[in-house]
Structure formats: structure tokens, C-alpha cells
Design goal:
four-stranded antiparallel β-sheet, 240 residues, binds adenosine-5'-triphosphate, binds magnesium ion, six-stranded mixed β-sheet, alpha/beta, Rossmann fold
Length: 240
């Protein structure tokens, strides 16, 4: 579903991603961890070409992401992304936030888009918030709206970049629960997170990055029992 072959990326002279090889199958949940600045966000953002790679090949759902003939908007419609900051439109209601892209981009009727929006609001556990503004919701609720908004496009892949990092400890769990449910339903997910409980329980694989390289790519069982790399061990000892 997602394949990095010998991918490199530079920001000017700075070599941020170094020979990345990573293959993610349909339905897999891959959790990406690693120290700040190791390139996690950059790697994830390459998948929907929010960042372009400098060399190597990146194939997503059979499409070469960096090929000049690739219809990037079409590819992006199949990839939902949830960030640390929810990026909801502040002056639109929850329902409007979720129906906007399906009506504008997919050409779905307003009525159908609203039905779909309500379906996903139900799924993330806040159907009663449909007519509220984002500012009237808690952080965890806003993030669940952001997830519902992503799902309303019926993507094949969901990318999450530290979706709970800006949340109060009490509301982190409600967002992780939604993600857990999504994983169980077979969504292909790439998740950057520091939530090791989630990683251990939900991930099919843990990818550990350090200084632009993937140092480990293993199952949670292997990784948490005994990381092969000293740097991974050090990282775990600091955050666990
Ligand atoms: P964090 O855990 O802090 O979010 P990260 O692992 O997601 O870190 P990235 O955001 O991918 O790391 O950044 C990797 C490196 O690339 C960092 O050293 C960062 O300063 C650098 N970098 C990121 N974006 C740019 C940019 N637009 N221009 C130049 N350098 C950048
Ligand atoms: Mg980051």
C-alpha cells in the first residue's frame, strides 16, 4: 500500500531522510517513534506529498507519488491526515467542517454529505455536537471532529502526526479509543505518537527513527521486550 524504496530527502544541504526503505501493507497499523527532529513528520508528510522527496521511489496505492504525471489531488483524496493541531475552520459548525470537502471535492450532495458526517460523528462518539462551533468543544472533541472529517472522504489510508500531543491527559484516551477502533476495522494507518501504550496494543509494527534513518522496524512485542539498537533502548528508557 505504501512503499519507500531508498528514499532520501534534503532541506537545502540538510539531509533529513536517509535511505528510507519501508513497506506498509493494506490494513497495517505502523507506529513511528523516535526523538524530536529525527524526521518522523517529514517521512509521513512525503506520503501525500506535503513534502517532496529528493531521490528514491515512493509508491502509494500503486501510484508513484513523485512522478510528474501523478494526479496528486486524486492521491490526496485517498489519504486522510490528522495533525497535532486540529486545523478546523473556526467559523464553521462541526457539520460544515466535515461536509465541506466531500461536497466541494467529491461533488457529493449536501444531504448525502450530512448523512455521512453524522455517521462518522456517531462513530467518534459526539453526534450531539454537530451544530456547535469548534471553539465550543474540548480539545479531544475537536480532534475527534478532525478524524471524522478525514474519514468522511472515505480514505484508504489515514496518517496521524502526534494527534494527541496537544491534548489534556484526560482527553487523550478518547482520541486513542477512536483510533483503536479504526485500526480494528482494518484501516491502513501510519501514526506518529509518543503514546507507548497505544503503540504496544494497536501497532502491527513499530518503526524507530533516529537522525533521518529507520533504525528498527519490528513488532511491538520484539521492540518493547528488547530493542536491538542502543539508541532505541535509550529513547524508551527516557519516555517509559
Ligand atoms: P518532532 O518529534 O519534534 O516532531 P520529527 O521527528 O517530526 O520531530 P521533523 O519535523 O521531520 O522531525 O524534522 C526533521 C528535521 O528536519 C529537523 O531537524 C528539522 O529542523 C528539519 N526540518 C523540518 N522541516 C524543515 C524545513 N521546512 N526546512 C528545513 N529544515 C526542516
Ligand atoms: Mg514531528
Amino acid at each position: 500500500m505504501i512503499s519507500f524504496h531508498q528514499v532520501n530527502k534534503h532541506y537545502g544541504s540538510f539531509h533529513v531522510l536517509k535511505n528510507i526503505n519501508l513497506h506498509i501493507n493494506q490494513g497495517e497499523v505502523v507506529v513511528v517513534i523516535g526523538p524530536s527532529g529525527s524526521g518522523k513528520s517529514t517521512m509521513v508528510r512525503c506520503i501525500n506529498r506535503l513534502e517532496t522527496v529528493t531521490s528514491g521511489e515512493l509508491v502509494v496505492d500503486g501510484v508513484k507519488v513523485n512522478d510528474k504525471n501523478t494526479d496528486i489531488n486524486k492521491l490526496r483524496r485517498d489519504i486522510g491526515m490528522v495533525f497535532q493541531h486540529f486545523n478546523l475552520y473556526p467559523h464553521k459548525t462541526v457539520l460544515q467542517n466535515i461536509t465541506l470537502a466531500p461536497t466541494k471535492v467529491l461533488g457529493v450532495s449536501q444531504k448525502e454529505a450530512e448523512e455521512t458526517a453524522l455517521y462518522y460523528l456517531e462513530k467518534v462518539g459526539i453526534p450531539e455536537k454537530a451544530e456547535m462551533l469548534p471553539t465550543q468543544l474540548s480539545g479531544g472533541q475537536q480532534q475527534r471532529v478532525a478524524i471524522a472529517r478525514g474519514l468522511a472522504m472515505r480514505p484508504k489510508i489515514m496518517l496521524f502526526d502526534e494527534p494527541t500531543s496537544a491534548l489534556d491527559p484526560e482527553t487523550i484516551g478518547e482520541v486513542l479509543d477512536v483510533m483503536k477502533k479504526l485500526a480494528k476495522e482494518g484501516m491502513t494507518m501510519v501514526v506518529v505518537t509518543h503514546e507507548m501504550g497505544f503503540a504496544r496494543e494497536v501497532a502491527d509494527r513499530i518503526v524507530f527513527m533516529d537522525q533521518g534513518t529507520i533504525l528498527e522496524d519490528s513488532t511491538p512485542e520484539e521492540f518493547f521486550a528488547s530493542p536491538r539498537e542502543e539508541r532505541a533502548r535509550l529513547f524508551l528508557s527516557r519516555i517509559l
